Each structure stands twice: as C-alpha cells, then as structure tokens.
Amino acid sequence: QFQLRESGGGSVQAGESLKLSCTISGETWSICEWGWFRPLEGQGRELVSSISRDDYASRKYADSVKGRFTISQDLAKNSLWLEMNNLNTEDAAVYYCAAKRCGAVNYGYWGQGTQVTVSA
C-alpha cells in the first residue's frame, strides 16, 4: 500500500504561478513512475505530467502545459513537485498525484487531490 499526499493548491490570477507538492510513503521501491493528473471533461483524468523514478528521470507533459509546467522529484525525500507558471483559467482543476507500479499498465495509486483555482 501507498499513501500519496498533495499540497500547494490555491487561488491565483491568470498569469501567476503555483507549485504543487506530493509525498509518497510505503513500498516506494516498487513504484517506477509517478505524476500529476487533472480531470478532463468526458475523458476521466488527463495526464498533466509524469516522471520516471530512476536515474533517467524521463519526463512527459501534456501538450497544453508544455513550456509552462515543470515536474521534478527528490527520490531520497520521496517528494514530487509540479511548478506551474503562466496559469490560465483552463488550468483550474483538482490536481491528483498518482503512482504506477513497475510493470503496471495503469496508475493504481492516487492522492486526495489539491484544488487549483485560476481567475481571469
């Protein structure tokens, strides 16, 4: 079992920045990838960004956030961050930290979510 806990959400105006944090506890050695999701109308949840939990730290970003969001991690601290810059109203959502076991197809572990509100 794992516990994922997010923090850092809040209310900002368009153009401003926020940094989300996530910590994971449990058998973290079995997690190969983790990242951030947000709801996408009619399609469940959208992968905003992910990073592999290895020396390569391979990163993925949704097209809508490329160039504005940056994902980073500290494996020793089991911490994950999402730096969000130049936020717009379409970024407003509940952001979920999630983790995927090595060899798994889908993400199977989720945090409770943290709310990001962006006003025009």
Q: What does this entry look like structurally?
A:
The chain is mainly β. The chain is built from no helices and eleven strands. It has strands at residues 2-7, 10-13, 18-26, 31-39, 45-52, 59-61, 69-74, 79-84, 93-101, 109-110, 114-119. It is globular, with a radius of gyration of 14 Å.
Helical content band? under 10%
Poorly predicted tracts of residues: none
Number of helices: 0
Shape: globular
Give the strand tally: 11
* Structural class category: mainly beta
The biggest beta sheet is recorded as:
7 strands, mixed
Order of helix and strand elements from N to C terminus: EEEEEEEEEEE
Q: Which value, in Å, is the CA radius of gyration?
A: 14 Å
Task: Return the average pLDDT rounded to an integer.
Answer: 96
- Straight-line N-to-C gap: 40 Å
User: Which range does the strand content fall in?
Assistant: over 45%
